User: Fold this.
Amino acid sequence: MAKQPQSFFVEEWLLSITVISSNKNGSTQSSTYSAQAIIQAWADLRESLKHQSFLAHHLQALKILISSQAALHVADPQAKLLISILSLQSVSLPQESYPLFFRLLYIWVRKSRQSSMLVESAIDILLNIFSCQSHSEKRYLSEGIILLGALSFQTSASEKSKSLCLELLCKLLEKEYRFMFLSDELASSALAAAGYALSSPVKIFFGRILDILLSIWGQEGGPFGISQGLMLLHLIEWVLSNSLNLRSLDTIDLVRELMENVKPTHSSFAVVMVAAGVLRAINRSGSSGVMQLKYFAEERIEIVARDLVSATKGFDYDGNQSRPNLLLQCIALALARSGSLSYRASLLESLGLALLTEAFPLQRIYDKVLKFPEENRETLLGEIKDHINSFIFKEAGAITGVFCNQYASANEDCRSIVENLIWDYCQAVYLWHRQATVLLVGRGDELINDIGKIAESSFLMVVVFALGVTKHRLNSRIDRETQLQISVRILVSFSCMEYFHRMRLPEYMDTIRSIIACVQENESACVTFIDTMPTYRDLVNDHGITFCLCYSFSTKLEIFLVKLTHALQIFLSYPNRSIYGPLMRFKLLELYSTCVL
Assistant:
C-alpha cells in the first residue's frame, strides 16, 4: 500500500507506486557530485549571465546540478540567477537546456521559501517561454507543466498569476496529453502538476482539471493501464487528504459534485480510481463529517461494477475471456486500496470475478496451453511471468480480504452464489491442471512451475475464503442440511486443490476442524464425500490418455492419497467407525491392488 509522500516531489511518490511490484527503485536516480563541483557549476552559470553567453560547459553545469538534485538546495539568489539567464534576449538557449532550468526552478519552489516578487518573475518568464516555443518541441513540456502546477500551488504568487498558470496547464493537458502519458515517468509529472493545480487556492479551474483527467483516460494515445490508474487514485487521495486536514470545504464540495454528476464522456476506469482515492483519503483521515461524500464515492464504484458484471453475462468465471479485463482489475485494486467499505452486492460479485479471472486466470492459461502450438509456448511463458509480477496478482491477498469482508455482510442468496463459484472453480482447476500436465511434463517444466505459483496462490485464497464460510454458515442460524452440503463442498474443493498445498496454514486446519465437527455424526454427508473421490484408474487415465507417462509412481500415489486424506480424518473422528469400515477398506484395497498391478 502506498504511504503519504515523504518527498518534496509528488511525482516521485506517484512513480514509486508503479514500480514497487516490479522490484525496481522508485526514487529518482542521481549520482551526486562533490560540493566543489556543485559550487563550480553555479559559478559557471554566473559567468554565463555576466558574459551573456551560453556555451557547452554552461549546459554541463546545469546537468551537474540536476544530477545532484537529491541533495541540492536552490535558494532565492540561485533562482534569480536562473530566471535572469532565461530572460536574456541576446542569447539563444539550446532546447535541451529548458527542462534543466525548469527542474531547478521546481526544486526551488518545492524546497525553499520564496519572495513574492521572484515568484512573479518566474511565472512571467515561464508563460513567455511557452508562448514563444513551438509545441512541436516536446522536451520541455514535462518539466514545464509540473513547474506551472507547483507555482499555482504557491501562496506567495498572486491570484492573477496563479490563474494564468492554471489556464495554461489546462490547455497543455487538453492538447498534449498523448505525449504526457507516453510513459509512467511522464505521466507522474503530468498528474503531479494536476495535483498541485487541484490543491491551488484558486478553485475556478478545479472542475475543469478533473473533467480533463476523467475524459482523456482511455482515449487514443491517452493515459491507460493499471499503473497510471493507481497514480490517479493516490493523487486524488493526496489532494483530498490535504483538503481534509485544512478543512477546505470548497474542495470537498467540488469533489462531491463530481461524484454525483459523472458525465458520459468520463472514463469508467478513471471514475473508479478517483472514487477510490476519495474513499482512501476519508478512511485514512478518520473524519466523520464527510460520510455523504463517502456514500457517493461507494455508489459510483458500485454503478460501474454493476454494469460490468451485467456486461459479462452475469456472475460466471467460466466465460470465453481470452484477454485480461483492465476495468475489472481496476475495480478490484481500487477496492483493495480504498479501506473500509459498505456492503454492496455488485462489489462482492466483481471481486469474485476479479479473483478467479484476473488474479488467478488459470482457465485462460490452461486454454492457451492446450491450444497453443508448441513453438508458441515461450510467448505464453513470458505472459505468465508478466502476470506473476503484475499488480493484480501481487495484491490478490488484499483483494481476498476485501472479498471476504463483503461476503461476511452479504445475504444468504449472494453468499450461495459466490460459494458455488469458488467450489466450481476448484474442481475445474483440478481437471485443467491434469490435462495441461499431460502436454507439458518433460517439455514445459518451467511453464508448469510458473503455473503452479499461480495455482498455489489461488489455493491460499480458497482456504481463507473457506474459513470465512465456516464462520458465517456453519452455525445455528443455518439449517442442518445446508450446513452439511457446504461442508462436503469445502472438503471436495480442498481435495481438488490439495496438490498445491505447500505450507502449513492455521486457516486450513481451523476450517478442517469446523467441517469435521459438522459432518462427523452424519452418515450421508460422509458417504457423499467419499463417493466424490475418483478411483485410482480414473485418476491416472483421462479419456484414454494415461497419466502414467507423466507422473512417477510416488507422485501418482501422493495425488491419490491427497484425495483420501480428508475422508480418513472424518472416518477416524467418527465414533461408529464400523459404518464406514467396509467402504474405506474397499478404497484402500483398490489403491493397493491397482498400484501393484
Summary: The beta strands are 541-542, 545-546. The CA atoms of residues 119 and 444 lie 63 Å apart.
